[in-house]
Hints:
This protein starts with a helix and ends with a strand. Residues about 50-55 and about 180-185 have low confidence and may be disordered. The protein has a seven-stranded mixed beta sheet with strand order 1-2-7-6-3-4-5, with helices on both faces. It has two domains: about 1-35, no CATH class; about 40-205, Rossmann fold. The radius of gyration is 18 Å and the shape is globular. It has about 210 residues and is of the alpha/beta class. It has helices spanning about 1-10, 25-35, 50-55, 55-65, 95-110, 125-140, 155-165, 180-185, 190-195, and strands spanning about 40-45, 70-75, 85, 110-120, 145-150, 170-175, 200-205. α5 links the parallel β3 and β4 (about 110-120).
Amino acid sequence: MNELRKRAAAAGIESKEFLIFDKGKEEIEKHIEHHEHDFIVMGSHGAHGVKEILGSNTQRVIRNAKVPVLVLKGEPVKFEVNNIVFASTFQEDVHESFHKVIAFADLMNAQIHLLNVNLPFHFKESDEAEANMQAFRDKCPRDNCTINIYNALNEERGIQKFTEKIKADVIAMTTHGRSGFMKMLSPSITESLVNHSSFPILSVNIHAK
């Protein structure tokens, strides 16, 4: 941690370190709430099997955080963000959450690509899907976002495939922060991507202020 502080100082960034022993996931949430952080960055190795069902530290933070969470997989040699995929159905009001994605994109000087994954059992013809996305884009301050529709068997696969296809750097999504029984009824695509994708994930809680 001392070494990280030195690297931050060399980059002109003020930093503080906190070291806590023998505390669980709840302590992370208490720390975030107490210090009122605006943005959270976490590393993750992903989760599978029982651990995925129960939820990892990263999953819990994504579920409960009221601020954007950026999850990194592995250790990038050089973290550059030129292209961001924002995946959504565009059927609910996610404009407020999307403004946080725009703020991140502006910070990184990155292009945003809007993505709607077309599923077999929720199929929409191209003109209908494009109209929904165009209406969404018309209400946003970023009018240069690209509009993309990708056909896939499920949302997670479609997001992964499209991100690989355009060689994007980050996947951005909103989450409802469901837990317990509601999470079993409607699993989080965001959490699933955090567990299975190799791409960095930017998660924004739709209920955050």
